[in-house]
Specification:
Elements lengths: L2 H4 L10 H10 L10 E3 L5 E3 L2 H9 L2 H27 L12 H20 L1
Antiparallel strand pairs: 1-2
Length: 120
């Protein structure tokens, strides 16, 4: 949904939504507003869309390597948090391997049990 559709239009403003939308589409943005000129895949000089600039930036080896590193660190932290939670949960046998969903379900049940013990 467009932003203008959510904001009230002052009565003193005589521009309709269609006029403002058309003016925005026809406007040529300057480089100072974060939208730069570039060369399209066909070799013609033009304005790159935000999505096209994003795709080009993500296609670089440097970006992919940095993204992979960030993702690896995130997954390691995620797995470490599950391992720490797993250590706090009672199971038989104690070293039984549990999936992440099993760890979460067991944690929910264990918290409910502890809450019941406190209330009794």
């Amino acid at each position: 949904m467009e932003r203008e559709a959510l904001l009230p239009i002052p009565s003193c403003c005589n521009l309709s939504l269609q006029t403002r939308k058309r003016d925005r589409e026809n406007a040529i943005p300057s480089n100072g507003h974060g939208i730069g000129n570039g060369v399209s895949s066909s070799g013609t000089v033009g304005i790159l869309s935000r999505e096209e600039r994003r795709r080009r930036r993500r296609a670089t080896q440097k970006y992919r390597t940095a993204h992979a590193t960030r993702e690896r660190v995130r997954v390691e932290a995620f797995n470490l948090a599950f391992a720490e939670l797993r250590k706090l949960l009672p199971t038989l046998p104690p070293d039984k391997k549990l999936s992440k969903i099993e760890i979460l379900r067991l944690a929910i049940c264990y918290i409910a049990y502890l809450n019941h013990v406190l209330e009794a």
